[in-house]
Specification:
Oligomer: homodimer
Number of helices of chain A: 8
Distance between the termini of chain A: 40 Å
CATH superfamily of the domain at 4-120 in chain A: Jelly Rolls
Strand content of chain A: 15-25%
CATH architecture of the domain at 4-120 in chain A: Sandwich
Strand order of the largest sheet of chain A: 1-8-3-6
Shape of chain A: globular
Chain lengths: 194, 194
Amino acid sequence: MTKETLTRLFQSTNLVSLSTAIQITDRFEYKFIPKNQFQLTAGKICNEYLFLEKGYMRAFAHDTEGNEVTTGFCSSGQMTFEVSSFFNRTRSMENIQALNDCEGWYITYQQLNNLFHTLPEFREFGRSVLVEGYAGLKTRMLSMITETAEERYEQLFKTSPGIFQHAPLKTIASYLGITDTSLSRIRKELARKH
Amino acid sequence: MTKETLTRLFQSTNLVSLSTAIQITDRFEYKFIPKNQFQLTAGKICNEYLFLEKGYMRAFAHDTEGNEVTTGFCSSGQMTFEVSSFFNRTRSMENIQALNDCEGWYITYQQLNNLFHTLPEFREFGRSVLVEGYAGLKTRMLSMITETAEERYEQLFKTSPGIFQHAPLKTIASYLGITDTSLSRIRKELARKH
DNA sequence: TTCATTTCTTGTCATTTGGCAAGATTACCA
DNA sequence: TGGTAATCTTGCCAAATGACAAGAAATGAA
């Protein structure tokens, strides 16, 4: 496994030159996260800025009744960390767990800040990660308001089919804002249609 | 009207010293936005980083059927701009409109970047604005999944009672992810309870 | 393999919410 | 002030979704 994908990520934003991308990449360390292992546990301060190279992860919180609520999925190519906990240095409300064997590259909070300090271009990358995350959340928010559960399901299936091979329906259902029972019925209905 | 509130905002984060806060504040210019006027129109690139000192604004988009969907409210003390359009320099999908006469202080994208460049502490402030926005969206997302419309209504009423004096129910309903009819019934039910 | 556990589906019924339309109330403007 | 439009409420019924429970299917471990 090489760091090539990571270097390409930094370059792909057009915010960072090749030589800078290589400098940044140098500071990241390899990490293997076996299936079901937690990358982050609620109550801890998120301290790793992780690039997920391979595999799928899910982020989840607990509602007031103690039920798991999937707050997000991460798949290869994405930065995987809990924004609020990582930057504010506060205890995470969320868990991040590997859905299958995962591989990636990470740096710590301290190292990230060092890089931000020494490589101004990298700050731009960091900002773009935040802005992308923000935009993604807003899109999902809008889909919760304007789309039916069935439409949200189809959208997720179209954009992230791999998740369905690794996460149980219950997990996907709570991400979509419905129960697993409803999701099962939606699938039945869609199977009838197609 | 003085810039005092603005200076205090920069200081309050503890990321910026008083002298820096004053330097930053100096670059902001006063703006009056009369009721119903648009601070940002869909299709335009958001170019103003606005601190809302007084008044209420709403951000809204249009769904595929052309209905207005309230994506957010802004009240005094908050930075008011469309994150994605502003930082990515892309056309905004959203409108931002004054719900009543508003006053605030703004700088342009170019000026913001100049400040980010000359005052590293201000970058920290900029990042914290993004992180706060991200966390706020995630909280709202979670409430869409785990709470009933009635609970979301009560929560909004508790945290932002002022909005109810300035936005019509239809606007608030779409923010909560329900129709104005349902919101009206929820209000009736709550009135019965209390 | 075999057994236990988890996951998924399905049935029944209740609850929530929406769509539509009518009427009441309020706000705004000429 | 009067009139028009916007807003809010309400009734009726349909559709979507949830709660609960039972059973089927798949998974994983000994």
